[in-house]
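User: Hi! I have a protein structure encoded as tokens and I'd like to know what sequence might fold into it. I'm fairly new to this, so please keep things simple.
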């Protein structure tokens, strides 16, 4: 009886979540400038980093710096996307939108699930824009379509985990002003990684921190699957990047998804 009740309950939550997601998608349709900024800012970063640093960077095994840079920028974009998630969730909480949703006869997790669905769809579109940019700049995946698709799957898995961190942070902070202060921490987390350079070129202590950054595991695994130049080093975390590109996001989701749902239920309590 319990299992039978769980299936309709899960379906109810998913249906309600999709309704909330459609509300967010309609907002983006009315304000396309915000969406286009989210999608094309990473393009500007690629052109900037590639143009500024490309001529001075030594790529492991040789080749264009874009071969090293593009998978890193794919991963960095997945991480930086949580800024918009935090802000949107905090704005809804501050304006009372979240409280109005809580008063409706919908599943308790539908609001956070809807935000996650909408933001994940936006992230897919943004990632496709960035992939197209890389192709125009000469970047290519070298090991076939199936491994490349697996790399995209790992990138979206990281984004899915980052979404739940952003949702929890937005609910916990509850104001756009507080979110702005937290957003400054995202840059060091994103850049102290293997996104832009091989971690072996860093001071040893900083290199260890960068290698254990979950973003580095996803980026290194994506580079391997794309067939692009990857990180060097013989540490356990570098040698097991593919495994940790799965373990890190799953662990983060297991922590922050229930925390987000619990925080949502306790709002206004």
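Assistant: Happy to help. Inverse folding works backwards from shape to sequence: for each of the 269 positions I chose a residue that suits the local structure. Here it is:
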């Amino acid at each position: 009886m319990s299992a039978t009740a769980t299936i309709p309950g899960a379906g109810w939550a998913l249906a309600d979540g999709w309704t909330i997601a459609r509300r967010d998608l309609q907002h983006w349709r009315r304000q396309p400038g915000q969406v286009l900024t989210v999608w094309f800012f990473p393009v500007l970063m690629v052109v900037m980093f590639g143009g500024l640093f490309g001529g001075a960077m030594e790529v492991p095994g040789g080749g264009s710096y874009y071969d090293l840079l593009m998978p890193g920028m794919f991963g960095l974009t997945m991480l930086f996307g949580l800024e918009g998630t935090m802000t949107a969730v905090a704005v809804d909480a501050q304006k009372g939108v979240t409280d109005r949703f809580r008063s409706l006869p919908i599943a308790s997790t539908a609001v956070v699930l809807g935000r996650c669905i909408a933001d994940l769809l936006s992230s897919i579109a943004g990632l496709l824009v960035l992939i197209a940019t890389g192709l125009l700049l000469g970047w290519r995946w070298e090991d076939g379509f199936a491994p490349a698709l697996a790399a995209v799957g790992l990138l979206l898995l990281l984004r899915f985990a980052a979404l739940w961190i952003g949702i929890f942070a937005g609910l916990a902070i509850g104001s756009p002003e507080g979110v702005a202060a937290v957003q400054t921490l995202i840059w060091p987390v994103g850049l102290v990684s293997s996104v832009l350079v091989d971690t072996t070129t860093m001071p040893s202590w900083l290199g260890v921190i960068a290698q254990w950054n979950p973003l580095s595991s996803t980026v290194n695994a994506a580079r391997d699957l794309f067939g692009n130049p990857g990180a060097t080093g013989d540490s356990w975390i570098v040698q097991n990047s593919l495994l940790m590109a799965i373990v890190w996001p799953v662990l983060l989701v297991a922590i922050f998804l229930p925390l987000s749902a619990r925080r949502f239920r306790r709002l206004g309590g």
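A useful reference point when you look it over: The chain is about 75% helix and 0% strand. Feel free to ask if any position seems puzzling.
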